[in-house]
Design brief:
Layout (H helix, E strand, L loop, with lengths): L1 E3 L2 E3 L4 H138 L1 H19 L5 E6 L5 E6 L8 E5 L3 H9 L3 H26 L9 E4 L3 H10 L1 H9 L2 E4 L1 H22 L1 H55 L21
Parallel strand pairs: 5-6, 6-7
Antiparallel strand pairs: 1-2, 3-4, 4-5
Helix pairs in contact: 2-7, 3-4
């Protein structure tokens, strides 16, 4: 039982039960409210960082919005700049295309002119080639003729003599040699060069072992080459012996002679592959020469002839030098006489000038009537001029 305000209420009373139920409900509600308030406080404390983050997020979103606006402005600026650049690029491309077009046009015109000029030159060269072809055809005929000449021993000998004559006439004075000179033994040398003693007149004979050389060139095997080598060696040895026996005469010619080979190829072959034959020629005092070495040898002989002629004229030169010295002495004396006369004439001119100055002064005084001021002057000594006897 419960007493409230002096009244007693039992627990079994429905009002009491209702009142207790209401009080319980109110108490429960209060408890729930208190718990809700505490939960709300805790939630508020927990929500503060979230709110702060939400605020920061809002600021960032605002910044992104501003950046988006700036980006949009920048994109517009870039778009405008790109459009301007494209326009400028198109203008440059148009100008460049125009320049390239003009340049290509000029180049094409120049190329056309050069092509036309080249075609003209090509035509001229073709004409020159045609002429050269004609010359080659003619030359081939001449070569065939030369082969015909060289195939015959007599004509080949004449060919060598003509070549030797041409070289000798170009290298030596006309009075220093004799062509086709006959010696006391009846043998005729192709050329005799009149060298002074020593060594004395020397003979030059032309030889051309063409068959042996051609056989050596045509040799296809070692046996053929050996046989051709023996043929060439024997031919040259025979020529050396013939020249030594025919053109080296005691008291009439020099103690040696020259064998002229009108072929540089044969000469080179001998010196390259047949040195024993060349040495045999030296031993027999027969010197083998080619057109080139023959010219050099003849030039040396020309110097020898010039020196010999200078020695022959040495006496006359000394006499002429003596006369020249006498003339120089006479000229010196005459120059001294002329110098003495010039000095005397210069002295006379100086005295004449002094006399003229004095006469001028006297004339000026007479013109001014200064007779009282005239003073006697010393007698001037006049030297007589010498007369050249």
């Amino acid at each position: 039982m419960i007493e409230i305000g002096g009244e007693s209420y039992g627990f079994g009373d429905p009002l009491t039960l209702a009142a207790l139920s209401g009080a319980a409900v109110v108490l429960l509600i209060l408890i729930l409210l208190i718990m809700a308030v505490r939960a709300a406080g805790r939630s508020a404390r927990l929500a503060e960082p979230l709110a702060y983050q939400v605020g920061q997020l809002g600021q960032r979103v605002q910044g992104l919005s501003d950046g988006q606006h700036q980006l949009a402005g920048g994109l517009n600026h870039v778009s405008e700049a790109q459009a301007a650049a494209q326009s400028h690029l198109l203008q440059l491309m148009e100008k460049r295309l125009a320049q390239v077009s003009n340049s290509m046009s000029e180049n094409l015109q120049g190329t056309s002119r050069r092509t036309a000029q080249s075609l003209g030159e090509l035509q001229q060269r073709l004409q020159a080639i045609d002429k050269a072809q004609d010359n080659i055809t003619k030359l081939s005929g001449d070569v065939l003729s030369l082969q015909d000449i060289l195939s015959n021993k007599q004509t080949r000998g004449a060919f060598g003599e003509i070549q030797l004559t041409d070289i000798v006439t170009k290298a030596l004075p006309s009075d220093s040699y004799s062509l086709q000179h006959t010696l006391s033994n009846g043998k005729r040398a192709d050329c005799l060069i009149h060298l002074p003693n020593p060594p004395g007149p020397i003979c030059v004979d032309s030889k051309f072992p063409l068959e042996a050389y051609e056989a050596l060139r045509r040799a296809a095997t070692d046996a053929e080459a050996a046989e051709a080598g023996r043929f060439l060696r024997n031919s040259v040895r025979k020529h050396i012996k013939d020249i030594s026996d025919r053109y080296i005469l005691d008291g009439e010619t020099a103690d040696g002679a020259l064998m002229f080979l009108p072929s540089e190829a044969v000469y080179a072959e001998l010196h390259a592959n047949f040195p024993d034959v060349v040495r045999e020629g030296f031993a027999a005092r027969v010197w083998i020469v080619s057109p080139t070495t023959c010219m050099a040898t003849l030039n040396t002989m020309r110097a020898i002839l010039k020196d010999a002629r200078m020695r022959e004229q040495a006496g006359a030169i000394r006499r002429e030098l003596g006369l020249l010295f006498a003339d120089v002495e006479r000229l010196g004396g005459r120059v001294e006489n002329l110098d003495r006369h010039f000095n005397q004439a210069a002295k006379d001119l100086s005295e004449i000038k002094i006399s003229a100055d004095k006469a001028g002064r006297r004339a000026r005084r007479l013109d001014n009537f200064d007779f009282e001021e005239l003073a006697p002057e010393s007698e001037s000594v006049i030297l007589p001029m010498e007369r050249e006897s």
